[in-house]
Amino acid sequence: MTETPNFDIDFDAVERAARILEEGGLVAIPTETVYGLAADADNADAVLATYKAKGRPADHPLIVHVADADAIDFWAEGVPEAARTLARLYWPGPLTIVLKKKPRCGLWVTGGQDTVALRCPSHPVAHALLERFSGPTKKGLTAPSANTFGRISPSTAGHVAQDLGVKPEGKLDMILEGGPCEFGIESTMVNLSSGRPEVLRHGVITRAMLEETLGVPVPDAGKDAPRASGRLKSHYAPKTKLELAQPDAYVETVLRWTAENAGPVALMAPAATLARIREALAPERIALAIEASPDVLHYGAELYDHLHALDDARATRIFVEAPPATPEWAAVNDRLGRAAA
């Protein structure tokens, strides 16, 4: 889909990561979306260890990350032409495609379902690792976000180190450094396992882009769709309670809460909104104020980093002004809505 910004690849580190994964270990890897907790998708013990490290429910399916589109037929069967069309246009990139699985794909990957989610990441470090790891059988890596289940996803190696950490104090065998993630929010997920395409999770690749590519409507998935990562009501949540307020009510909401409660607040809103609050509140009542970008790609790329900073500010409440309710902001609004649930 896109050319991820250049990053000097440490091939010695990539080789070390590949060997750890081949031995059944766990490695946090950078992708263009978020950092993932990688394990050999063919190794049941390794994959189950990721569930334990994250505290993730065992019926919550994982995405298999592959080196290229040729891997699709090694992991999925009955592949529709729509899947190949999307892979040609958007792989490598932030798109996950859900298909009927082949027997090779274990139920430890799929959460007991008969479908498999596949993605080919574009981050140069992740891509180098997958090319080294893949081999003639097109081996893949499961790689859910490298964070405690339900909490804020990691968009830097530092977020991973702070949360899961490296052994012996932590839970991982290695963190493979790759700089900050380009897009900062999880991939778009489209279900092609049931006849018609449907969006399981919104991301940088929008519904409009999918519909233009496929030439058919691509609605949101219904209740009978496969279970998928990131669809729980409460997800991506900071430890500090986050409240999402509409632009016309944001200032009033913050001022009313601070009048009725003690302690500082952490804020994320446009500059003009923050200026109004600073005029009304004493400086000590504002633990941290982050200016929200008006650009959807910048906002998404910075979202989890900002949520980590807001959560670390030792505020008693986080207030985020809701972004525009337009289609291009669907992924950002989805993540914020679940973070506030």
TrEMBL record:
Subcellular location: Cytoplasm
One of the record's GO molecular function terms: tRNA binding
UniProt xrefs under InterPro entries: DHBP_synth_RibB-like_a/b_dom, Sua5-like_dom, Sua5/YwlC_C, Sua5_C, T(6)A37_SUA5, TC-AMP_synthase_SUA5
UniProt-annotated binding residues for L-threonine: T33, H65, R119, A143, S187
Binding site for ATP: R56, T115, S145, S153, R201, Y236
Keyword Phosphoprotein: no
Listed EC numbers: 2.7.7.87
Broad enzyme group: transferase
One GO term of the biological process aspect: regulation of translational fidelity
A GO-annotated cellular component: cytoplasm
Name of this chain's protein: Threonylcarbamoyl-AMP synthase
Taxonomy of the source species: Bacteria, Pseudomonadati, Pseudomonadota, Betaproteobacteria, Burkholderiales
